[in-house]
Every structure is written in structure tokens, then in C-alpha cells.
Amino acid sequence: MTLHVVRKNIYFMPDSKRVLARFFSVSEQRAIKIVNRILGMDKQQKIDTLNKLLRNFSKRHRSVIGIWERNHKRIAHILQMTDAKEGDISHKDKLLIGAHFTMEYSIEAAAFFNPSIVESPDQTQLKDDEKRVVLSFRAIGEGHVSSIVFRSAVLDSNLDMHVEEVGHHLEKPRVFKSYRYRKSDFIEKLAQLHEMDKEMMGIIQAKLTDTFTYEELRRYVNEIIQENVLNPDSLTLMTQIMWLASSHYDITYSLDTAISERVIFPIVDTEKNGIEDARFVRFTTEKDKVIYYATYTAYDGFTILPKLLSTRDFVHFKIQPINGKIANKGAALFPRKINGKYAMLCRVDGENNYIAFSEDINNWQQDITLLKEPEYPWEFVQLGNCGSPIETDKGWLVLTHGVGAMREYTIGAILLDIDDPTKVIGKLREPLLSPNREEREGYVPNVVYSCGQMVHNEHLIIPYAMSDYASTYATVNMNELLAALMEGGAD
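Above: the chain's sequence. Below: its structure in C-alpha cell form.
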């Protein structure tokens, strides 16, 4: 059965004009020299320099003065190493210092890809058969550092997407480390990251209380260092304890920002090399409440740390690590519990598709079930998922990515039993989407890839990336797709 897939003529492209103001970090020795040079300017030089900075940058950022003030505070300790006294430093001096420790970062300059799509929590001011949606993307800038960005759009009755105006002033969130950790979970995750001897494990077990905050943990770590003679490996472990703790945090954006202005940029050390491939899903609880979850991968240059993001409004977000056997790239949460448990697609070996279940959304300690191995030539190298399953009256629809010869990525599909999703009851014998002539050229050639889909007006809406450079979307009739899946047979 040949499926009619409609590629839409809309593209989400990298835009180098979208810049974020970041803290510019240099060594302490260089910072002292920079501050001394600024303070050594005469009064008119300071006025002229500040006026030029305001003229060139005030229209590019929301409250650039506030950014400079915050960045001045981050290096305020440097002033104690200069001849200047705090009372001698004017507000203009502080702004100039802050500006010299600020840099613009073009978050989308290199690539804008791996999209997901969910129904927006705001469905006001729409016509019949229209739906407002939130799209998320992986954006890559200088140094291949990736972040999560958003777009808002409206799908009309003809399945055409009308993207809402993109905001000009990118916004980093306020960060709160208010999470309360459980000792048992924390130590278990730490043990996965660092092999500990019995003596060190005993010291940590004795010091930590059953639950603790980030600041309490910081105090416990300092006490362990002061009270014990630690070897280099144990000192590294103390650093990793705080590294792991920093991966739990809350973030919030100003309500007057457009969703396209909100950037989830690497904030803590566990993410400093990027945030990859968020798979968003609209999750319905057993009490019919809606929470948006996203699994994503944090990378610090050495270690991959899977994380779970949650939000109800795309303004306030909670970020936590995922613990347990599924802790690898490419996890995708089912949109509701199944038989009283959370369910997650995962790929623990980098090659096959698996499924896992848990009573705790952050801790996945139960056995993992093999779901699907490569079967067709277009997936002989590896299989993975393209986002969370979609519930239909025939079963759970899962889009998959397969990698075949010449490392070509294609998008396929399988159907899982609605009550027992460990059973594959349908599959496509041919890819649903393969890179065409226009899509195969890019940052990583011959790749089409998606991180999440949704149903609208009896059609599957499939946003997808083109060769890890830009994104677009396609549609396919759900009845035709389900019929083809059943025709393909079960495992």
C-alpha cells in the first residue's frame, strides 16, 4: 500500500540575527586588567563609550542595562583586587564593567532542527477546525552548543501552518535551585557516575540526611572535605556531587515574553556542551490534568545525562535528571499511564527500540523489554524513536527512525497494542519519509528526523528536520497510515 505523504512548503531556517546576551568569562588575571583599564578612563571617555554601547545594543535586547548590571555583579569580587574602592565606582562604571563581560551569542546560527509539536495550552481566538500549537526545536550556535527554542503556530482546517510572529528579544530565565533531594535516589545516581569505595560511601551516607536542599548539600560537602583527608579521586567525587545536584532546578520567564523569545540555554555544568533533542508530550494525568513533559539529553563534554523537563504553561519549567536503566539518549514518554504505570520508549544500547515502565516518573529501575530490532535494509544500522507514541483507536502509533546504508536516516512507523504496548501489532514495510533531493543536503547529509508529532483533522502532523540544518513538516491521512500499518503485519 502506497501512502500519500504531503510535504508542506514551509521551512524553519537558522537565523543568525537571533542573539542572546551571555556572560563573557575570562581568567581572573585578565579580568583584573580589564577592570583597571575601564576605571582608568577619563570621565568623557566613559560617557562616550557608554552612549555608543547603548546606541548599538539597546534595541537588540530587552533591558540591556539590566543584563550589564547582573554581569557586573558576577565579577564584582574582582574589584577587591584593584586599587578602586566600592564607594568610588559610579553606576556608569558598573555598566561599563558589565558590558565588557557580556557577549552576544547567535543561538540559531548553525542549525535549527529536530522539532517536536504539541497542542498549546492557549486555544483562544481560534476558528472552527483550527488549533494553536507549540513547536520546539534544537538550535545550534557557535561551538556547536545547542539549546531548546520554541515557535507558536496555528494549524487551519486545510492542515496549513500559520507561524505567529517571532519575537526579537531573546530571554534567558531566572533560575531557582529549590529542589529537595532524596538521599537514596541521589546516591544511586551518583554511583552510576562514579565508582566509590566502601569507606567513601559510608562517609557520604552518614553525612547526608534523608532529604536535603542544594544549599544543605553544599554545606555537607564542605564538611566532608574539612573533616577527612581525601585523596584526588575522593575530591573529584565531591565535585561530581555538586555537579549532579546542579542538574535539578526550576526556571521561569517573564509573562510579557513571547514564547519564541524564551530560550532554554545550557545553565548548569551538566549541560555546558548542549541540550539535545527535546521530545515534548502533552501528558494527561489520572485526574485529567495536563502536564507537558519533555525528555532531553544534557552533555557536559564527557558525560551524557538524560533529563526530564515539565511545565504547565511554557513559562515555568522544572528540570530533573532521569535515573535508572533507561538513562540514555532518545527516551520518549507515553502521553498517559498504562495499567497504573508510566511508560517510556528508550534505546539503551544505541541500536534497538525498547520499552520500560515505572511507578515513579524520574526513577526507572524495572526491567526493560526489547520492542523492535532492525528488520529492513533501511534500518539495518540502528533503530530509534521519533518522539512519544500517539494514542489511536487501533493502538499506539510510534514513528521510528531507521539508519541504513550510507548512514541515511529515514522515518518509519510501528503500531503497539493499546493495553500491552510491549507487543508490536503493525509496521510499515517501507519508510514513511526518506530524504529527497532538497532535504538530503545539509550539516549532516541524508537525514530526516523528528522528535514528536500530533493529530489534527484526522491527519498526522509530522514536523521534521532536514539533514540537521533546517526543519519543515509533512502530513499523512491517519486512516490510510493505520491501514498500512495493519497490512504490514505484526512481529
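The first helix runs from residue 28 to 39.
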